[in-house]
Amino acid sequence: MAKKKIAVLTGGGDAPGLNAVIYTLTKTCILKYDYDLIGFKFGYRGLYTNDFMPLTLENTTGILHKGGSILYSSNKDNLFDYKVVENGVAVRKDVSHVAISNLKKDGVDVLAVLGGDGTLTSARDFSRLGLNVIGIPKTIDNDLLATDQTFGFDTAVNIVTEALGRLHTTAESHHRVIVVEVMGRNAGWIALYGGIAGSADIILIPEIPYTLDNIIQKIRERDARGKMFTIIVVSEGAKEEGGSVIVNKIVADSPDPVRLGGIANKLTYQLEERIGEEHEIRPVVLGHTQRGGETSPYDRILSARYGSYAAKLIHEGQYGQMVCLRGGKISAVSLEEVGGGQKLIQPETEELVQVARDLGISFGDRQVHRTK
Ligand code: F6P
């Protein structure tokens, strides 16, 4: 009987842990189940152009800790709405049938897709077309439905935490206000976790609109206590009460074309206008450093757990599923439950919002009332 052949692809923005999943999946599939593996390059684009490489024990060795993806990634190539040039004119069309015929031609039995909501929505759609698909949840934003945690998030939080530690010493030396912009799209998870772990004084997240007055009141309240510097962590998707998000650019080919960014500069400018006489203010945009470098130990382990469980699902023929983490346990959920939504912070019920408030951290949404 022919060996089972597994194809792997990594789609969307890269996240630390992609290589750790590829590593674990390759090792488990070869050593435990004796399968063959190939990896398509640049996500779904490689599936369309049939650009792949074998995945072997030799070419995946030593990648567990490395960020990025040895298969590269793309967050622009949705094969159900793909840009092709016909008679010199660019048109968008559904080219999913090309991917399916490539997989057939390459003798692939199962497609393992590592991605966030856009990539996994396509995985669901390929599953609906009859492909054997397994999803593995990735994104630094941690905004995917149906799993408590995506891999990549912990590493990003570590990077934000380390940056805030460094910014504290320089902010304190100059009595400055530093506004630190972090990623996360429309979800404030990175800001909330990184902000608490890094002892931010103010955390601004998309789920809780802020006012400038409340931010300034918190800064002055700290001044009054002799804390002459303030660290503000602002999520790229945060907005002022009655305001809207700041869009940095539109990436037309992307399943989610809006790229946020620019709020740290805007807020710095606004604060300079109001309290520039009291403090110097500086913006810091952490940007793609949050996705780069080495994968945190927690993410390496989470990725290894996901990879190992994905191989088990493949072995058992349980397709149309995404591996997930729920209540500390790895399990699987139908891909039907994954796409088309975002897991956002629920401010009224989220424990960490309460913890932050207990710590005296302001979300810029209420006046500050200190009792001591
Ligand atoms: O989804 C991951 C993410 O890093 C977001 O936090 C951010 O808004 C976006 O991707 C940035 O996308 P790009 O890499 O296309 O600039």
Count the helices. How many? 10
Task: Choose one word for the global shape.
Answer: elongated
Helix content: 25-40%
The radius of gyration computed from the alpha-carbon positions, rounded to a whole number of angstroms, is 22 Å
Bound molecules: 6-O-phosphono-beta-D-fructofuranose
Distance between the termini: 75 Å
Write down the secondary-structure element order: EHEHEEEHEHEHEHEHEEEHEHEEH
Main sheet: strands, sense, barrel: 7 strands, mixed
**What percentage of the residues does DSSP assign to strands (E)?**
15-25%
Give a written overview of the molecule.
- The protein contains ten helices and 15 strands.
- The mean pLDDT is 96.
- Strand 4 and strand 5 form a beta hairpin.
- The strands form four sheets. The protein has a seven-stranded mixed β-sheet with strand order 3-2-1-6-7-14-15, sandwiched between helices. Strands 9-10-8-13 form a four-stranded parallel β-sheet, sandwiched between helices.
- The N and C termini lie far apart (75 Å).
- With 372 residues, the protein is an alpha/beta fold.
- 49% of the residues are buried.
- The protein binds 6-O-phosphono-beta-D-fructofuranose (F6P).
- The site of 6-O-phosphono-beta-D-fructofuranose has 12 residues, from strand 12.
Topology:
Elements: E1 5-10, H1 18-32, E2 36-40, H2 44-49, E3 52-54, E4 82-86, E5 89-93, H3 96-105, E6 110-115, H4 117-128, E7 133-137, H5 153-174, E8 177-182, H6 189-197, E9 202-204, H7 212-224, E10 230-235, E11 247-250, E12 258-260, H8 263-275, E13 281-285, H9 297-316, E14 321-326, E15 329-334, H10 351-358
Parallel strand pairs: 1-2, 1-6, 6-7, 7-14, 8-10, 8-13, 9-10
Antiparallel strand pairs: 2-3, 4-5, 11-12, 14-15
Bound molecules: 6-O-phosphono-beta-D-fructofuranose.
